[in-house]
Amino acid sequence: MSSAVEKAIRGAVTQAVTKIAEFNRNHRKADGPNPYLSGIHTPMSTELTLTDLQVIGTIPPELDGSYVRNGPNPIKPPNPATHHWFIGTGMVHGVRLQGGRALWYRNRWIRSLEVSATLGEPPAPGKRTEGFDAPNTNVVSMAGATWAIVEAGGNPVRLDAELMTVAHDPFGGTLHHAFSAHPHLDPATGEQHAICYHAQVQDKVWHVVVGADGRVRREEPIAVQDGPSIHDCMITPRYVIVLDLPVTFSMKTLLAGHPFPYRWNPQHRARVGLLPREGRGSETIWCDVDPCYVFHPANAFETEDGRVILDACVHDKMFDGAYEGPSSSRVPFERWTIDPVARRVERREIDAAPQEFPRPNEQLIGRPYRYAYTLALPEGGNPGFLDAPWLYKHDLQTGRREVHDFGPERVAGEFVFVPRASAAAEDDGWLMGYVIDRARDCTELAILDAARFEAEPQARIVIPHRVPPGFHGNWIPAH
């Protein structure tokens, strides 16, 4: 009986909070344009299929698949006074490559109930997450299917080869709590690991493992406080790394009408957890770290003496200023040495320049590696977060940093490394991602030879319109 009463109370409280938040959201007035609804972030208003794409250079004929990126793209104009970059219907943008040709570009909204109703379509099938059913953060290949994914409790959405929504699908009903925007494939086992949180659950997160068959085999709870936002994680052969840092759920922010209710919380203990990969949540080894925030690690590995190395882009603070998007004054690329015996984290700057979206050769996830690729951020920050034309290649053995400059009036996004099938070296492959050309108001899918990082792109596929900066993309092989 007590559980039924508690459920009824929680339901009533949730309804009351929702009504107050909606009232305040609808009545807030903007002081000026929202940087994530204007300029390069202006949402697209239509879905397109383009088959006559200009190609500058030579597309590697070995590439057979699609580069696809996900990002927020509201289908209806939101209130600019309360819109946050992380909130908004997901839209995927993809370019299909085959036999040295660019076959098509497509952009498609993830079919939420709102999208289907707006477009006059029947709802897409499957189990939905109440409140947010249009994952907008990442798009990945798992178990032979393509998935749009998001954190904080949203269910994954399966897409077909042409980027249309197939179904809202919690992995065949095997996912019972939450998923993440950043699962990590263990190359040794074929399993995907993620640390997942739910916006309505404040006292626990979960280590979720999805098998090579696309079914969840583990959802291990880990006790936390304050409802932390854990955007990403990393794995090593023995551990899953849990980043419990001072960005937490804020009821005050939610009640004020802001739809992304997470803020910097200096009272929240900053710590890094080493969870044994098959261990109980209570066995997590917690190590204190100076207050900071990490969206994205590059990689992690273990040393012979049992310590854990984690490389990541590290923000000094996050969500401590304006409500529209990320806020920090420093974002260096750092190496953390985590000592599970002393329970201590030592931090060292690899590169002080502001940067984000680190990616390695992901065949080496969890193992020692040499190269990390990051996206430069503008010095001094920017209201729209992204506004720089440079990529960095870090040689973690020599300490050398190479710079690829796309040129003036260009804005680069995250780039992903695609290894050559017969790769002879760690950087034997390509980097690909979207680059906005503000002068021409168009976008290019750029393909770089990773071993000749500073050279001109091997190929540039011209998309004759601006693709708004999204979040994360991946190469989805055709087979």
Count the E strands.
33
Helix/strand/pairing category: mainly beta
Counting DSSP H or I runs of 4 or more residues, the number of helices is: 3
The biggest sheet amounts to: 6 strands, antiparallel
| Gyration radius from CA atoms, angstroms | 21 Å
End-to-end span in angstroms?
52 Å
Query: Which geometry do the CA atoms define?
Result: globular
Low-confidence stretches: 1-12
**Beta-strand percentage?**
35-45%
Helix content: under 10%
| Average pLDDT number | 94
Plain-language structure description:
The chain has 479 residues and is mainly β. 8% of the residues lie in helices and 37% in strands. It is built from 3 helices and 33 strands. The chain has helices at residues 2-27, 113-119, 251-255, and strands at 49-50, 54-57, 65-72, 90-98, 101-109, 138-142, 145-149, 157-159, 165-168, 184-185, 192-196, 204-210, 216-223, 234-235, 239-244, 247-249, 262-264, 271-276, 285-288, 297-302, 308-313, 333-339, 344-351, 355-360, 371-376, 390-395, 401-405, 410-412, 416-419, 429-437, 442-449, 459-463, 473-477. Strands 2, 28, 29, 30, 31 and 32 form a 6-stranded antiparallel sheet that branches. It has a 5-stranded antiparallel sheet with strand order 1-5-4-3-33, with no helix packed on it. A hairpin with an 8-residue loop joins strand 18 and strand 19. The chain is globular and about 55 Å long. The N and C termini lie far apart (52 Å).
